[in-house]
Amino acid sequence: MEIYLKLFEVLFPVFLIVGLGYHLGKKNPNFDTSFITTYAGNFGTPALVIFAITAGGVTFDLFSEYFGYAIILLTLFGIVGLIFLVLMKKDYIRELPTFILPNTGNMGIPICLFAYGELGMGIAAAISSLIVLLHFTLNIFLAKRAFDFKTILKSPSFYAILITVLFLYFEIPFPQFVLNTVMLLAYGMIVMILMSLGVALTQMKVFSFKDALITSFGRVILGPIIGFAVIKFFNLSGIPAGVLLIQSCMPSAILCYLIAHMYSPKEIVDNISSTIVVSTIMSLFTIPITLFFALKYFY
């Protein structure tokens, strides 16, 4: 009974905030979330990376270890995505981000925080930092089908990750006023992005349910299976293993849609929109199941 109470305590806040956003989107179909997107990209996400890693007490060794596991995890996600998209005769370049870039930041980090405390949040941020970096680099490259080094240099998240890694490596504590500031920015972003996810679910449409169901299966069903395989292969255990499993089951990130909307043709945007909507709805059922196993066997 205790584990079911824990499940409720972890998932209720996250799903409630998404639900509030959905309510706002239904009430006002023209609800504009552009401010939230701008805030998240320029301030919220970099602050979340810094705060989650430093507040969680993550060491440089632990960060680099799980950053490496994240690379392996995303590589496997990418292989699965390529297989799915090639067999489905889709644009395997522009639609690949929906497979390799799950919503580990705005959904995954708070869930790991509520499940495992600040250490869980820190490890989740170590995994998510790679995905954040790829959103503003690889995701844009794939959406544009062109490499642009300036994109990396313009990404605030790139500098946030770089600064955090340097502070961890040299064991330099962040000043308290910096931690207080990034804490407010980070928590504010989590709430706003979760609400914007709910709003987006009322605005984005499913254009091909069959195709979206197949791609969503590859994201939220095969994702945690791949995560579990990585855990077993590297013989991981405890809280870090649980965090890795939880992060692997997240749905496709809404940033995939926002970036595609900026750089990709409408057909691609529609396909990505469909996958995000369906994978997010499916995750309402798959996340509790994955979380149950994570809390039961990796604690």
Write up what this structure looks like.
There is one protein chain. The chain has about 300 residues and is an all-alpha fold. Helix content is about 80%, strand content about 0%. It contains 13 helices and no strands. It has helices spanning about 1-25, 35-55, 60-85, 95-100, 105-135, 140-145, 150-155, 155-170, 175-205, 210-235, 240-250, 255-265, 265-295. Helix 2 (about 35-55) runs parallel beside helix 8 (about 155-170), helix 3 (about 60-85) packs across helix 5 and helix 5 packs across helix 11. The longest helix has about 30 residues, at about 105-135. It is globular. The model has no long low-confidence stretch (mean pLDDT about 90).
Q: How many strands appear in the DSSP assignment?
A: 0
Structural class based on helices, strands and sheet pairing: mainly alpha
Radius of gyration: 18 Å
Measured by DSSP, the beta-strand proportion falls in under 5%
Along the chain, the helix and strand elements come as HHHHHHHHHHHHH
Indicate the mean pLDDT: 89
Shape: globular
Largest β sheet strand count, sense and barrel closure: none
Counted by DSSP, the helix tally is 13
Name the helicity range. Answer: over 70%
